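The data are quoted verbatim for completeness:
=====
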Amino acid sequence: MKRVVSVSLGTSLRNKAVEVEVGGKLLRVERIGTDGDIAKFVRVVMELDGNADVICFGGMNIYLYCGVRRYAFKQALKLASIPKVTPVVDGSGWKNHVEPLAVDWLRQNGIVSFCGKRVLIVSSVDRAALSRALYEAGCDLRFGDFAFCLGVNLSVRSWLLYLILSNIFVPFVTKLPIRFVYPVGERQERIEPKFANLYSWAEVIAGDFHLIRRHMPNDLSGKVILTNTTTSGDIEELRKRCVRMLVTTTPEFDGRTFGANVMEGIIVALIEKHPDLMRREDYMHALKLMRYQPHVVEF
């Protein structure tokens, strides 16, 4: 049995382990939260090195993307160098190759028409390919990176201006500890309503669910949420807020949708290639084996 383990800086309250058959192979998929404790994160990663088939980094990105440029998080890159045997993924491959397909699938199946829709993506540097797919789908797109990552109530509408500003700020941001730009530990469990103007404007809210959830208001009536990892508790939170539809780009396993990092780990385990050698055609082949499609919940 292949073992795919996500080690997260997030809360241990969201831990989960399932055994699933994917593409004819039996996989044990685990998520281990370290409650924002870097020392614990390091210990768990060292214990898994050589004892798991793929280690997935959750609660952080190793890389951020601004157009064609890629910037490495200094802290995450250092952590990724710890395992010497087991390969490490952070979800970048899934985000770059698979998430844009979800936009096309939703359009082609008449589930969501993005043309002219007001779409807020909470962090585009985390999901550059999804942002590009939404932009090309003809929506009215706003980039919420400054609000949801830096705490400044500002959204950017111009793609060119966004690229200019992000290439100025991201090299600085990637030198900061991850906890300054992403909710880790118990912060993932708190909801502190903020940026009501941005939530209210949007018809579709897209991107990382922890960023969406952290500041969401009590009323999200009629909204479509396009995201990744959600628990049954998250779904109830959205139901109470009168969300119209939840779409996760990751499939559901045992009542839970895992993060992009886990799905990339599953694909690497299926294809049995080192992440650095994975190409788009490898992802497409794995998706066929998985019979992949986004997970849709209509409330």
Q: What stands out?
A: The two ends are 36 Å apart (CA to CA).
